[in-house]
Amino acid sequence: MDRTTWQPAVYAALKAARITQIGYVPDAGHAHLIEAAHADPEMAAIVLTTEEEGIALAAGAWLGGQRAALLMQSSGVGNCINMLSLPINCRLPFLTLVTMRGEWGEFNPWQVPMGSATPGVLAAAGVHARRADRPDEAAETVAAAASLAFDSAVPVAVLFSQRLIGSKVFVK
Amino acid sequence: MSPDRMHNEGTLDRRAVVAALMRDPGDLLVVSGLGSATYDVGAAGDRPLNFYLWGAMGGAALIGLGLALAQKQRHVLVITGDGEMLMGLGGLATIAAARVPNLSVAVLDNARFGETGAQRSHTGHATDLVAVAAACGWGATATARDMDEVAALRPRLRSEPLFAVLKIAPAEVPRHLPPRDGAHLADRFRRALGVAED
After folding, report:
1. What ipTM goes with this model?
2. What is the pTM of this model?
3. Which residues of chain A have a CB within 8 Å of the CB of B195?
């Protein structure tokens, strides 16, 4: 399974988990999911100005009987910390897919601090993190994370490793 | 404290404003921002379809968006304060981009951070939230400075995607504390909507 097949498989896993709202702050690693969400008439694809909006969006979705997911890159995890008190305090499910930066062939040093801190920050904030390093485990990791989030009503993050998504090429 | 026109302060009684907006709520879905807005909405009459925030500052309007997308046959009203709205200002752009027809936001604007010692907020210095919302792409915006204008906004806040600022007095009112267990509030809201899973 390569990049052209694991990303559609991840979208299919979100659909199988009955996700109907996707909030996102764009990342190249999420480009397929964002395009697929906008092309899907049954999916509300919501572009956000900052990542914590997606946590509030997901809380509202759940209050109204729907399921949401947040797509972001690791630099956005730090923006989310206080808003994570919302799903934790209200015992709401929360699912986020995080593309990792700053860990594998990173060109931009500004991505390194938050990328390095992401697993620790998520753990400290009470989010269950699951990591996908290989194309063949991406979709099943998302499916398992969605089950954990929505069946057990806990916040869950799937970290897509930078090796999986491919290092960003700045000079082509 | 007398109203200070120099600093864009209003004269409306916040409890009277929220009581007027919440009269005969029917199945209106209400999200209140942390602090005084939550106390005001609770004081107008506790009901399962009120979702009170006691934290998550800056998130009220976006909770309203997720709810409005999920419950397209109902109308969602977010009632919050100027400080809470300012923390989530980008959400005004996000909501405008989403183009939902069933979400309104009412900001109780006293140009103060009321919970923390009444420090002057940005709306008391320089910022016009109605102009911000319009510039973000909200098609309908309004300001209310007297109770007749509040009464005129009540039906609009239940039927169209309206961003409204209600210019309230900075005076403190007695605390009214609605339920604050988030899991309880979320569960009763979902049960009242009939979307709770077994």
Report:
1. 0.96
2. 0.96
3. 64-65
